[in-house]
């Protein structure tokens, strides 16, 4: 058994217990592995769902890069549960993709928000001088690292780290994606809040050559979300609709050649912000799944 529900936010132990339970219960399609350890020594667990067909494209989905954005791991685990419990009856668009889920990229920060500081954002590795803790993992990825919207001050909430991939968590994600045999066609990273579907580039006001197709996919996802749940999402480039911020995981994934790279800022638009009540978990996750299904159809068409 497991303790997972989507009526509460869960501690890391419950989330990992749930992943392990699924691997045990559905061994033909699900496996779980640790892709590395966090600074404090917690596993970084990735769950893979696949029907094993060698022709499959692959999609990587992560959550919990930022510790306080609790709706993100809750949404990613909801996706996992829906696919796991229903895989044989899913559409071919879902079944013909190798899904990789890392629900909590930053488990140390996530636990810290449960035990000490609900609004903590970064990981928990102390700076060299030890005067402050934590690097913003979404400023630590190695694409145009060190640019706008990132800080060299270890006490800043947007501290970029001492060098690109200085943090075990961002390093593990990048090594896994680079070395996986999987043919990743999409990278989705779930954050909160604001209700945005963002595509590269984030480092500065520029867009990749295929921005038109990213915009089309993002808008199709937003339409599906609105039709299912009613939340309105704004679609655009990160730098254009939000702000420039270099070192994000989305830019790095795009730089690796992953076609559909999106940061999705989940609900809400600011009434509750990071402290989203638990009654939002199911509706937010459910409408997000409608967006994910649209993404899957584009992945299979590409
Ligand atoms: O600033 C961020 O890291 C993200 N917003 S959040 O409120 N969740 O912190 C947006 C990241 C967008 N992508 C890039 N700037 N690369
Ligand atoms: Zn975030």
Automatic annotation (TrEMBL):
Keywords: Carboxypeptidase, Disulfide bond, Hydrolase, Metal-binding, Metalloprotease, Protease, Signal, Zinc
Keyword Protease among UniProt keywords: yes
Peptidase M14 domain sequence ranges: 8-299
GO terms of molecular function: metallocarboxypeptidase activity; zinc ion binding
Superkingdom: Eukaryota
Active site: 265
GO CC entries: extracellular space
Cofactor(s) for this UniProt protein: Zn(2+)
Biological process terms in GO annotation: proteolysis
Keyword Disulfide bond attached: yes
Family statement drawn from the similarity comment of this UniProt entry: Belongs to the peptidase M14 family.
UniProt protein name: Peptidase M14 domain-containing protein
Biological source species: Leptosia nina
């Amino acid at each position: 058994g497991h303790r997972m529900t989507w009526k509460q936010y869960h501690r890391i132990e419950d989330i990992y217990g749930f992943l392990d339970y699924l691997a045990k219960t559905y061994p033909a399609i699900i496996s779980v592995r640790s892709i590395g350890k966090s600074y404090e020594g917690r596993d970084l667990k990735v769950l893979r769902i696949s029907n094993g067909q060698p022709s499959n494209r692959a999609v990587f989905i992560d959550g919990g890069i930022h510790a306080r954005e609790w709706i993100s791991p809750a949404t990613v685990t909801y996706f996992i549960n829906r696919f796991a419990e229903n895989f044989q009856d899913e559409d071919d668009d879902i079944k013909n993709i190798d899904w990789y889920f890392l629900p909590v990229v930053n488990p140390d920060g996530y636990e810290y928000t449960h035990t000490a500081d609900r609004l903590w954002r970064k990981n928990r590795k102390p700076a060299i001088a030890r005067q402050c803790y934590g690097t913003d993992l979404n400023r630590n990825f190695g694409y145009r690292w060190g640019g706008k919207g990132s800080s060299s001050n270890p006490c800043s909430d947007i501290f970029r780290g001492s060098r690109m991939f200085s943090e075990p968590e961002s390093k593990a994600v990048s090594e896994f994606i680079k070395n996986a045999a999987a043919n990743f066609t999409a990278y989705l990273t779930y954050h909160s809040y604001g209700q945005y579907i963002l595509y590269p580039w984030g480092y500065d006001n520029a867009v990749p050559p295929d921005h038109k197709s990213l915009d089309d996919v993002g808008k199709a996802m937003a339409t599906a979300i609105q039709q299912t749940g009613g939340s309105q999402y704004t679609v655009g480039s990160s730098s254009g609709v939000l702000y420039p911020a270099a070192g994000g995981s989305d830019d790095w994934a795009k730089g690796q050649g992953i076609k559909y790279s999106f940061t999705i800022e989940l609900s809400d638009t600011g009434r509750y912000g990071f402290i989203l009540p638990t009654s939002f978990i199911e509706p937010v996750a459910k409408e997000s799944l409608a967006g994910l299904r649209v993404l899957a159809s584009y992945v299979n068409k590409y």
